[in-house]
Here is the input.
Amino acid sequence: MALVLDRIGKSFPGVRALNNASLTLNGGEIHALMGENGAGKSTLIKIITGVHRPDSGTVMLDGAPLSLSSPRDAIALGISAVHQERNLIPRFSVAENILLEGLPVRNGLVDFRRANEQAHEHLRKVGLGVDPAIEVRRLSVAQMQMVEIAKALSHQAKVLLLDEPTASITDAETEILFRLLRQLRDQGTAILFVSHKLEEVLSLCDRVTVLRDGETTLRGAPMAGMTRQTLIEAMIGRAERPVIARSGKPQKGAPKIELRDIATAAGHGNISFSLRRGEILGLYGLVGAGRTELARAIIGKDKLTSGTVLIDGKPVRIGSVEKAIKRFRMGYVSEDRKHEGVILAHPIRSNIAMTVWGKIASTFGLIGARQERRTAAPLARQLEIRTPNLEQLVGNLSGGNQ
Here is the structure.
């Protein structure tokens, strides 16, 4: 099994995503694909899986030209992928999503009992203990990610493409996944693994290809003897600049926010912690432990059933996300960016500025592009969002830039 992409070019409105990008993926190897946000990694995977067609260059599978019209064509050829964007149907069950391309049938009808049994086996392989009969929309984002991986593995693919599969799962789930990937590699599967986590790549992968600004800067280099510094220079074009970490000094006085014996509709009970100004507090737990649900309850998205929230030492009732943002000046970065974080069909300037529309609106309540740009520009520079301009639709950005 050999998949070869040579001098691939691909453009979107206002963006040159790939420019003469090349990659060779062989059976029986785990091949890392690395690069900064916007380097073209996800676009390359979407070309391999038939989501996009290249504007130029060639794709070869086992020496024969490969032209795909859809992801279904790729699956038929043994190419399966886990994309950054979830590809699940929320109102279908876990089993239906995993086996969508081949649901078992009995007497002309779907055999749900058998489907659940088959799905349970795929879930077991990835270490996810959820009921295969429940609807996907009831799962956490991390659980959905594991279902995506189980779905890709169910196709018994000869080529498996994983676009940042560990981004939303814990170390424990990551170790289960890595054991499974090594088994598949030893069975001859060709695996392309995309990750920003250098330690993962160095420990898991056999070879590495690096993209920078849509071009290949390192192609198929053996991982044996590879250093962190070499990878970083290939990705950013310069040596790594060390950052000296300073310990924070929480300010004295009442905590900025404090939770006392909080219970939520999601099942939390007796949750208590405090957070002071100038402090970073970590919240950790396994998939399904309720991390996301607790954050949603704090900002008023989900319901608190008992307990007290204090801001600056005073009991408050947040009640809604709008109140959390406007009155208590809370910010929330959702793990589900496409449904809760950004509006894909709107420009970058509007997405960045929308939480302060009330402050930048004119006397008559109108919001102009100039005011949005003035608000968004310094933040876009600070966060190094890779875009030709702030008029670019968010849907045209890479996942990391979104």
Observations:
- The chain has a mean pLDDT of 89.
